[in-house]
Protein 1
Amino acid sequence: MIHLFQPQTGDEELAAVAEVFADKWLGHGPRTKAFEAEFAAHIGVDPEHMIFLNSGTAALFLALECLGLEEGDEVVLPSLSFLAAANAVLAVGARPVFCDVDPRTLNPDAAHIEAALTDRTKAVVVLHYGGYPGDIEAVAALCRDRGIPLVEDAACSVGSRVNGKAVGGFGDFAMWSFDAMKVLVTGDGGMLYVRDRELAARARRLAYHGLVQSSGIGHAKVSHRWWELEVPEIGRRVIGNDMTAAIGRVQLRRLPEFVARRREIVELYDRELAGAEGILPPPPLPAGHESTYYFYWVQFEEEIRDEIASELLAADIYTTFRYAPLHKVAAYRSEGRPLPSSDHAAGRTLCLPLHPGLSDDDVRTVAATLRKAVEACR
C-alpha cells in the first residue's frame, strides 16, 4: 500500500528517547523547555511565548479559552478546516461562523473573511491549507484594522513562510500539530504561540491545572512550604513531556531535509501530471511564499472524483479528501449560508500520497495510475 502519510523516524529519535530513559525524568522537564526554545527560534519569537502541549487540538482549545469568549460571540473560520477548530469554538460557548475559500487554493482570502464578519465577531481562525500560507498578510491586516484577534491554525505549516516570515507569526495566537501524520512528528503533541506576554503566562498556567506555581522540586528550592497551592482559575493538564519533546528536537533539526524531499515529490507530481486531461494540480505558490508541502491535491469533474478514489484504492494507493466542509455538519449549527466555492472544492478534490518515504518510482506509480483512472472514468 502506498500511504497518504508516513512519519520519518529512526535511530536519532530512538537515541534521544533512550537518553530520557537514562535520566529517569520522563515528564515535563528540561527537554520540554529546550524544545520550546528551539521551536521559538525557528519561528522567530521569544520562547516565553511558546508552549509545548500534548496535541495541536489542545493548543486550539487553549487559544480560544484565553480569548474569554462568551455565549453569543462569533468566531469566523473557513468551512474547509479540521473539525478541532469548530469544536474549540463550541467548547467555550461561542458560535462558529463559516466563511468560503478560494476553490483552487482552498484557503480563504481577506474578502472571504470580511464577508463573514458581524458586530458579534470576536475572533478569526484561519487555516493554512496543506502547508500553503494563503492570503495571511491581508487577513492579518484586516483583523488588526478591525481589532479582532487572529488565531493561525498552522497545524500543517511548520516550515511555511511569507516573505521570509514564518507562518504562525502573523496572528495573535498560532498552533502547530506534531501528531503521527504531520511533517514534524512527536507521536502526539502540539505547540501554542501567544503574542501577548500576560496571556502567554496565563495559557501556561491553564495548561497545567491553573497552578501559578507547581509544587515540584524546582519550587521547593525557592519557596517555603512548596506544597501549598495557588489556583486563581481552573485549568487542565495538557502539557507536553520530555519523551515527546526529545523526539521533537531531533525532528526539528531534520525539518529542512523533510521539506526539501516533499518539494521534490511535489515537483515530480507536477511533471508527471503535466498536460493530463481532466486533472487539475495545485496552483503555483505566489512570489515570496514558501510551503511545507503537506498536501498535494488534485481536482476533477465532480461526477468522477469518488470513482477515481476507489480505483486508486483498488491499486493499493490510499487517497482522501481533507477537509470535509464543516458547514454541512449538523453539530456546528451552521445557518445554511451558501459557500459555493467550498462546496465546489469539496466535491472535486483528492489528496494524493505525500511524504518523504515515497520513492520517485512510488510517485510515478501514483501519477500513472491516476492518469489511467481518470481516462477510464471520463
Protein 2
Amino acid sequence: MDVLYVLIPLSVVLVFFVLGALGWAIYRGQFEDVEREGQRILEDD
C-alpha cells in the first residue's frame, strides 16, 4: 500500500511530462505538414 504514495505522484509527473512534450512539438510545428513528409520519403533524389 505504501508504494501507491510513490506511484501516483510519479504517474502524475509522467503525464505532465508527456503533455509538455506534445505541447512543445505542436508549438514548434512538428505536425504542420504531415503529408509532405510522407511523400518526401518516397521521392527519388
Protein 3
Amino acid sequence: MSDLPSEQNADGFARLAMVTIDCADPAALAAFYGGLLGWEPRHVDDRFAILDNPEGGTPLAFGRVEGYEPPPPGNPDGSKHFHLDFYVDDLTDATDRAIALGATEPAYQHGRQLKVLIDPAGHPFGLAPLDR
C-alpha cells in the first residue's frame, strides 16, 4: 500500500535513465569510479562522462560544472551535487505532467533533446525521450 495521495498512485510516466554527479573534471571522476566499481566508460569528453553498469542497471554519469566547488567537508547537511535524468515516451507530455506535480521550468535549457526541470525542493532533473 502506498502512502502517496490517491492522485499520485497512477502509473508513473518516467524511467530512471541515469544518475549524474556534478564535478570539475568528468574524465578524472569517471576514471576514479570506473576503477572503484569495475565499470567501463561508454562516453568520456571534457564536459561529460558515462559509466555503464555491467549488470544492466542505471548508468553513472559525471557532468562538468564551471566554477564547481565541492560540498564543505564534515557537513552532513551541506549541499549535494548530483541530479537525476529520466527517460520518457513523450517529452512534451512528460514535461507538462511533471509541472502539474510541482516541478518548475528554468529559462536555461541544455538543448532540444533534454528538458531540465526543477523539483519542488530546488533540485534540477532532466527528462529525455527514449529512442526506441
